[in-house]
Amino acid sequence: MLKYLIPAGLFAILIVFFFVGLGRDKETLPSPLIGKAAPVFDLPTVEDPAQRISNNAFAGRMYVVNVWATWCVGCRQEHEALMEIAGRNEVPIVGLNWKDQLDLAQQWLRELGNPYVVNAFDAEGRVAIDWGVYGAPETFLIDAQGKVIHKHVAPLTVEIWNRDFVPLLQNVKAGS
Amino acid sequence: MRALPVILMLLLVSAQTFAIDTERAFEDEAQQARYERLSRELRCLQCRSETIADSNASLASDLRRQLRELMAAGKSDAEIMQYMTDRYSDYVLYKPPLAPRTWLLWAAPALFVLGGAMAAVIVIRRKAQLPEEDPADPGLGAS
């Protein structure tokens, strides 16, 4: 009896091991930034490169940083959801335009609509490295103390926003 | 057909010439060697199974630029690795650190060898205890 039970048992362990592995999301990497102070940036704006924008301008309130680019297919996919979320006026969305061309980015905002309060133009991708960006679109939520409290990688949808972001917005409002 | 092994060997040797990062980063021989070593220890996070030395993804070239700048600024290896893990977590390291959550990863080879050895010992000892001729199996003895 044991002769059959041992291999069967080992096989069962393997199955469990692989099954757990299958279900795990290997695309999304944990961000070491969660719970830490958001990296400060100071960049030209997409809207007018003569102007600059720093996220220090949002100190003391919650804001969202959304990393996007015109070459990013997922960004086009999530754009409609961003427009809808921005329309609710829950929290300002700051765009971080990543390694893009200024004219293409401006054209994108004109044609698809602009859900952002302002767009920072990170042509060299240096700010993106500070934020640990590895694949647009990425969306960060920063609290009033300037800490990163949530990060979503992959295109945002209204469902994901309602599920993962909205409760965090309410928590902070209730606490204050 | 005789040329085949030669071709294979040449392909093996030519691996260096497929390198993505062909431009020399540092004049100094030692710094260049250090740059090449470090860029092979960092993972490109856009294309997970490549190091930043082997990848032509835009993030990899950005990280190579960052590595060059940090080295030029006189940062130590540990400081550079800290800079990278602060932003991209331990996942950016091609060689994962020895930590409580990675013990299984590091112990796996030893566990497999141990498991194999135990199985071998059990099988050998059981075989040794069997009688020379199996009375239940006349077929083998007859042939």
Task: Write structural notes for this entry.
- Chain A is 40% helix and 19% strand.
- Chain A has helices at 2-23, 73-87, 102-112, 126-130, 158-175; strands at 42-44, 52-54, 63-68, 93-98, 118-122, 138-142, 148-153.
- Chain A has a five-stranded mixed β-sheet. A two-stranded antiparallel ribbon of chain A has the order 1-2.
- Chain B is 57% helix and 0% strand.
- Chain B has six helices and no strands.
- In chain B, α2 (29-39) packs across α3.
- Chain B is elongated, with a radius of gyration of 26 Å.
- The A-B interface holds A 29-33, 99, 124-126, 128-132, 134-135 and B 45-46, 58-59, 62-63, 66, 85-89, 91.
Q: Nearest-angstrom radius of gyration of chain B?
A: 26 Å
Total number of helical segments of chain A?
5
Q: Portion of residues in helices of chain A?
A: 40-55%
Q: For the largest interface in this structure, which chains are involved and how many residues does each contribute?
A: A-B, 16 and 13 residues
Distance between the termini of chain A: 65 Å
Rg of chain A, rounded, reads 20 Å
Number of strands of chain A: 7
Shape of chain A: elongated
Indicate the percent of residues in helices of chain B.
Answer: 55-70%
Report mean pLDDT of chain B, rounded to a whole number: 84
Q: How many DSSP E strands of chain B?
A: 0
Helix segment tally of chain B: 6
Quaternary structure classification: heterodimer
> Strand pairing plus helix content of chain A: what structural class?
alpha/beta
Biggest sheet character of chain B:
none
Measured between the Cα atoms of the first and last residue of chain B, the distance is 43 Å
List segments of chain A where confidence is low: pLDDT < 50 over at least 5 consecutive residues. none
Gross morphology of chain B? elongated
Strand numbers in spatial order across the main sheet of chain A = 5-4-3-6-7
Q: Could you tell me the strand content of chain B as a percent range?
A: under 5%
